[in-house]
Amino acid sequence: MDANQKIDYLYKEYARLNEKLEEEIKGTFEDFKLFGAAGASIVLWKPIADVIVLVNPKIDYSGLLFLGFLSLLLIFTLIGYLFLLRNALMFSIASSLISFETEIRAELNTPETSQVFHLIHERDTAKFSTAYRLTFRPTLMILAIAVTLIPVVILSNFSLLYAGIYFLLALAVFVSYIQVGRKLTKLFFRNLKFF
């Protein structure tokens, strides 16, 4: 294979991987829509439970609220871990793109300081990792507060036991999510402090 064919092959594969990365990024924004829909259901669950109890007064209201919020917590957990899984796939694709960028620059005899085929390498810079951390951290905190505190406040009006159990379960989910997220970002970002 001559040099032109090799560069053409490398570029086509680079473009394919870039397209795949773009698809995953777009999918991540779809995940945020899922979080929004699930978030709306947290706020709406109490009025829904009110209607259910009106239709069937024999149902234990506090137990119904608890099971509903627990189900919503499970949905949030699944969406959150799908988000982390998608991030892992994006990080993997980006790592492959770095290899292609390096190889293409070498084939083109481009100096290391050149910005040609250097886009994915930018993810290693302090500026990008800081921006990632600064945007991800508050988003995660706001979501965790909403998913934890709204149900706990509502449940505490009816059963402190259910409120306490829910709080402990939500806290455990949040801590495990942080741990997995921290390990994932350390695989990709060098020396990044997640929290």
Question: Which structural traits does this protein have?
Answer:
195 residues; mainly alpha; 4 helices; elongated; disordered C terminus
List the helices and strands and how they pair.
Elements: H1 3-55, H2 61-107, H3 126-156, H4 160-188
Helix pairs in contact: 1-2, 1-3, 2-3, 2-4, 3-4
Number of helices: 4
Provide the gyration radius in Å.
23 Å
Could you tell me the strand content as a percent range?
under 5%
Instruction: Please tell me the overall pLDDT.
Output: 80
- Going by helix content, strand content and strand pairing, the class is mainly alpha
Count of all domains: 1
Report the major sheet. Answer: none
Summarize the structure.
Helices cover about 80% and strands about 0% of the residues. With about 200 residues, the chain is mainly alpha-helical. It is elongated and about 80 Å long.
Describe the structure.
With 195 residues, the protein is an all-alpha fold. It has one domain. Helix content is 82%, strand content 0%. It has four helices and no strands. Helix 1 packs antiparallel against helix 2, helix 1 runs parallel beside helix 3 and helix 3 packs antiparallel against helix 4. The longest helix is centred in the N-terminal third of the chain and has 53 residues. The protein is elongated and about 80 Å long. The C terminus is likely disordered.
